[in-house]
Amino acid sequence: MDCDQIAELLDAYSLGVAEPDEAAAIEEHVADCVRCWSSLSEAQQAAASLALSSALQRAPELLRRRILSEIDRADEPVRDRVGAGRVLARLWPVGAGALAATAAASLVFAVVLQSEVNDLQDENDSLASEVQQADSLISDQRQIMTVFGAPDMQQVTMQTGEAGAPITASYHWSADYKVGAILCDQLPDLQKGEVYKVWLLSGDEPQEIDSFYSWDGIGPFSLEHVERPAAGPVSVGLSIDDADAPRPGRMLLWADLSD
Amino acid sequence: MNVSVNDSGYERLSDEELMQRLFYRDSGAFEALFDRYGDLVYSTALRVLHDPQLAEDVSQEIFVRIWKAPQRYVADRGRFLTWLISVTRNRSVDELRSRGRRRRYETASPEEQEFEPPAGDSANPALSAQLAEQAGIVRAALAELPPEQREVIELAYFGGLTQQEISERLAQPLGTVKTRIRLGMQKLRAALAPRMWSEPI
Predict the structure, then answer these.
(1) Is residue A44 within 8 angstroms of chain B, CB to CB?
(2) What is the pTM of this model?
(3) What does the alpha-carbon distance between residue B30 and residue B44 come to, in Å, rounded to a whole number?
(4) Chain B residues in contact with A145 (beta carbon < 8 A)
């Protein structure tokens, strides 16, 4: 069919009533014809505008809840998307604010020996608490993906050291969304008593840290705020929720907000 | 602690930008899309299906599909809202056909169709106002069409009838039906172009 013949059929096609052979001819033609593709777009917009002529009805509130519940169930684990063997750590809002505010800020990532801290896991956690933690974990994972999807995402390569392994680590953040994440690759397995550490070195005044999140493809993990000394590093304990999961060792994330 | 993206952040994003964020499983972006167009999708499905429960089911299926497979929308091929409405209409018609619910589709003149904005607080008053304005433009354009042209267009789009079925329904030759559709849509495009196509539909 030539362009004139195609033009005769575009409206029926846009209304969803073209014959199958006509629809096939249109689709084949517009794949190589910019002019007809543009005409088709206009026809499709006109057809879609018909929907606006309907009386607008409020969707039932239950529909919203049903949909959100279903997408929660359908959500894929983040590990499938970031690849096994990586560690994601979220640093918020300190990283986003401090790094965006000063070029002098830097991050250091290292694995060092550290004495084992007291077990922070409350052995009497209720089922409700576990569910809440799982919800929190999913929410955190989504926030991490928000960082990597942000149009304004920026990143810096972090210094690494003392690890004895070819670790790569980079910090990604979105000023618009005020979220940040640390992406680490090739982390060595931890032995008992070893920890991962992160320092944030910034010239800014220390800022309150709300939480860290860490995920290494083994998890799930949860984090508990251990202490916030007046000076010196902030430590955040990482405990393993799943007793049956392989235990890479106790890990700590440290953020040093001093100059 | 859960860190939530400020709601105002989503309001600043275009539909296409929100869709882009679904690739990163941003449920806040998904909720923003639903808040923008949940009513429109439901209303369109209801217009085709005439059954609130079926309209709910179809709306749910469409939004869940968007979450699971955002790549089905390709931004290079057109605006998100145009795509969303097309998907909604086509899925609703499929449902109608699968259930054999070929009820006689009654067309009403645009003047006769009562437009009632959704009750309660809108999640996005500015968008609601914009959609309401565009709805008025579309209804005015439809009202300008000769009744026989408007009828075949509505039977095709909302009634889910093929051109042959419309021909039989109206006892008119197939060629006449095709001509009415073509002429009616040409007039509709001409009427809408100056006022709508620079707007976000």
Answers:
(1) yes
(2) 0.58
(3) 19
(4) 24-26
